[in-house]
Amino acid sequence: MIALLQALVFWIAAWGLNIWLSNSKWSATWPVRIAVPVIFGITLLVLWEGVVRGLGVSPVILPPPSLVAQTFAASTETLWIDFLQTVVKGALRGFMIGAVAAIICAIVIDRSAFLTRGLLPIGNFFAALPIVGVAPIMVNWFGFDWQSKAAVVVVMVFFPILVNTVQGLRSSDALQRDLVRTYAATYWQTLIKLRLPAAMPFVFNGLKIAATLALIGAIVAEYFGSPTRGMGFRISTGVGSLSIDLVWAEIAVAAMVGTGVYGLMAWIERRVTFWHPYHRE
Question: For labeling, which of 68, 89, 168, 170 is most exposed (least CB within 10 Å)?
Fold first, then answer.
């Protein structure tokens, strides 16, 4: 119980510090904007540690963060192999293929009213398909290696990017389109110089959504067939062998990768769409 009380005291102190930082005159500066979520995350880990140790929870049910950190440090080679298999080979390749195909299809759909009315509803239908139903089919089609995981990722990311890109291509207003017509601009000149730049906020919105879906899709697909490596494979076998600390280490890797990819997409978006009112200081 002493560990639990210490964790509660730390949590209350950190909560008060975060409130003070959020209401201070430095709240808009980047060090404070970084410090507040970092302090909050550390507080949750300390509270987790205190609850597990104070209440004597079995590591099989919920390991403390200290044990997860020890397992993480002792299993870096395994985690790296799983990272390469799931993230680099499966999720990244599937994300790139799906994103490129979605943007190209969006441009084709934008030129055809028939495809706009016919394909987009079908896209919404496929976007609603459960991954647990798609993954076994893809494994059966493409085998147990990374190709089937990339195929699942393509299915998951294609339609969110497609729908957002089509919507973005229509975001330029009539006055802007009339203006480029007065300069005798062709369709492709209008597309490249007006409509695609105007669509970038929508495209990046789809890319940020798809970035998290890609990792989830690759991990879940490995539950239905995988070589003896991969994050989904390791989580599945770890639960079966009661190695819950290794499972949490894999979850920590997935969380860091997902956060990093989302942050990278947001950083690129800010550089590409610097003109957008949302990014103006």
Answer: 170
pLDDT at residue 4 above 80? no
φ/ψ of 228, rounded to 5, equals: -75, 50
Quick: pLDDT tens for 237-247: 888 888 888 88
Using DSSP, state whether 268 is helix, strand or coil: helix
CA distance 220 to 86: 10
Per-residue pLDDT tens digits for 35-86: 778 888 888 888 888 888 878 888 888 888 888 899 888 888 888 998 888 8
User: Pick from 162, 132, 157: which is nearest to 225 by CA?
Assistant: 132
Chain centroid offset of residue 84 CA: 17
Rounded Cα gap, residues 277 and 7, in angstroms? 43
Q: Do residues 109 and 120 touch, judged by C-beta distance below 8 A? A: yes
* Token pair listed for 242: 């009661």
3-state DSSP of 37-86: HHHHHHHHHHHHHHHHHHCCCCCCCCCCHHHHHHHHHHCHHHHHHHHHHH
Tell me whether residue 117 is exposed, middle or buried, using C-beta atoms within 10 angstroms of its C-beta: 0 to 12, 13 to 18, 19 or more. exposed
Q: Positive or negative, the Cα torsion across 85, 87, 92, 98?
A: positive
Under DSSP, the state recorded for 269 is H
**160 and 206 in contact (C-beta within 8 Å)?**
yes
